[in-house]
Amino acid sequence: MRIRIYFMILSFLVLSVLSIKGASAMGLSDVGKVCLFSKMEGVIKLDGVPVNNAKLVRTVNLTKDKTDEAVTDQNGYFKFDAIFARTITKLLPMEFVSNQEVWAHYRGKEYRIWMSVKREPDENSESQGKPFIVECELNSKERIFDVDGSPIFTLCTWDVKPDKKPNIMESLKRAEDAKKVKM
Fold first, then answer.
1. Which of 19, 34, 44, 160 is deepest in the core (most CB within 10 A)?
2. What is the phi/psi pair of residue 55, to 5°?
3. Is the pLDDT of residue 10 over 60?
4. Does residue 148 fall inside a structural domain?
């Protein structure tokens, strides 16, 4: 009898957590599923010319490193499928953080074309919900900006609107004004 009561209470708690986290709208097979790195495809160029046979190494880390590779074709095109994982952190009130890196190896040189910290577990959050299609110029200067609060260091461009840069002086003035109001 006690075991049955404990089982009923446990079942109720699990279902409550799942419904709070939105699992009722998805299949049970999706419970705890997060996207560590969205499907990424695009073209690698060197001085504006597509590069053939560049080896790309992608590494992602939620709790341990996962690595895969792609090679560009004669048009410089490459494609990485999305990487998903299951984690209890999606069901708990915890911050999601997935470290991402992509390196291009071409003619004896290494180029870091992508480094980011993915903070949203949804697919395509790196591109604000749109397909993640990039064009990367190996000889370009690395750009650093945030997309929806996630920092990105990249040699690539894609259809995304970076976050507005915070105005430090404006923030300091607001903080000073807030202090005056409290006094």
1. 44
2. -95, 125
3. no
4. yes
Q: What 3-state class would DSSP assign to 28?
A: helix
Predicted TM-score (pTM) of the model is: 0.74
The strand pair at 109-118 and 65-71 is best described as: unpaired
Amino acid at 43: V
Q: How far does Cα 16 stand from its chain's mean position? A: 28
Q: Report how many domains make up the chain.
A: 1
Q: Which residues pair with 152 in a beta bridge?
A: 116, 145
The amino acid sitting at 32 is: G
Q: Residue 81 is part of which domain span?
A: 32-157
- Sort 50 into a burial class: Cβ within 10 Å, 0-12 / 13-18 / 19+: middle
Q: Which residues pair with 80 in a beta bridge?
A: 40
What pairs with residue 71 in β-bridges? 55
Which H helix or E strand runs over 66? strand 65-71
Question: Can you give the CATH number for the domain in which 121 is found?
Answer: 2.60.40.10
Q: Quick check: 16 pLDDT over 60?
A: no
